């Protein structure tokens, strides 16, 4: 194991006003820049796994998700909308415990997370071409370029891109003017994720959660 991975033992995350979690402090300050460093919460992980189910017929394996993220479990709440997480080797796919997922962006130009993004973009293009009668097939490069241009404009407006937004934009992408029919069971509502328990972290008194971040107890 590299020295960088050995030093990545814990992180402190905060729930932002956008209802997403952002890294506030991390054990390895040398290899990580925490400025606008985002992390997936357990419900976001669950929804992304649901979206990637659509890509399994096109060659997607859930194992690539584990390779692209460092996994963390909840240690304790340490302040208002602040949670301490500790590193775990458990799988995002098979683990019943709620896990957070930090994208492996130590190298922003290459690496497991970059490979993962490129992989799902190519598979999304294949799915769209197989499902919609285009005059000309859409390419992964076209998807990536369109989203990158949108993010560039938002960046100049001072908007930080969260990893959840980046991935759902790809996995739900449909060209303007087209529609993609989906089975009702392929997209779950928040209530269907209510069994993901996070009792150790009760943030609902401080900030009201939305569809990307909810800590409510199961019915």
Structural notes for this entry:
The protein has 219 residues and is α+β, with helices and mostly antiparallel strands. It has one domain. The protein has helices at 3-7, 42-52, 63-68, 112-131, 140-156, 163-171, and strands at residues 10-15, 21-26, 38-39, 69-79, 82-88, 99-103. It has a six-stranded antiparallel β-sheet. Strand 4 (69-79) and strand 5 form a beta hairpin. Helix 2 (42-52) packs parallel to helix 6 (163-171) and helix 4 (112-131) crosses helix 5. The radius of gyration is 18 Å and the shape is globular.
What fraction of residues sit in β-strands?
15-25%
H and E string:
HEEEHHEEEHHH
- Gross morphology: globular
Discrete helix count: 6
Tell me the domain tally. 1
Helix content: 25-40%
Radius of gyration: 18 Å
Number of strands: 6
Taking the alpha carbons of the first and last residues, their distance comes to: 42 Å
Low-confidence stretches: 183-198, 202-219
């Amino acid at each position: 194991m590299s020295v960088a991975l050995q030093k990545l033992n814990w992180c402190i995350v905060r729930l932002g006003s956008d209802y997403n979690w952002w890294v506030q402090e991390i054990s390895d300050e040398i290899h990580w820049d925490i400025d606008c460093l985002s992390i997936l919460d357990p419900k976001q992980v669950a929804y992304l796994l649901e979206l990637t189910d659509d890509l399994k017929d096109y060659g997607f394996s859930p194992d690539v998700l584990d390779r692209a993220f460092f996994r963390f479990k909840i240690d304790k709440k340490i302040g208002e909308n602040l949670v301490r997480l500790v590193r775990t080797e458990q799988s995002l796919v098979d683990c019943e415990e709620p896990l957070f997922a930090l994208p492996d962006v130590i190298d922003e130009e290459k690496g497991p997370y970059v490979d993962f993004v490129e992989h799902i973009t190519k598979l999304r293009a294949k799915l769209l071409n197989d499902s919609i009668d285009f005059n000309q097939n859409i390419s992964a490069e076209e998807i990536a370029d369109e989203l990158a241009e949108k993010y560039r404009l938002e960046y100049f407006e001072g908007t930080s891109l969260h990893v959840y937004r980046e991935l759902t934009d790809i996995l739900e992408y449909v060209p303007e003017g087209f529609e993609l029919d989906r089975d009702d069971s392929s997209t779950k509502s928040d209530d269907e994720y209510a069994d993901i328990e996070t009792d150790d972290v009760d943030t609902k008194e401080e900030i009201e959660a939305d569809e990307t971040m909810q800590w409510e107890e199961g019915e």
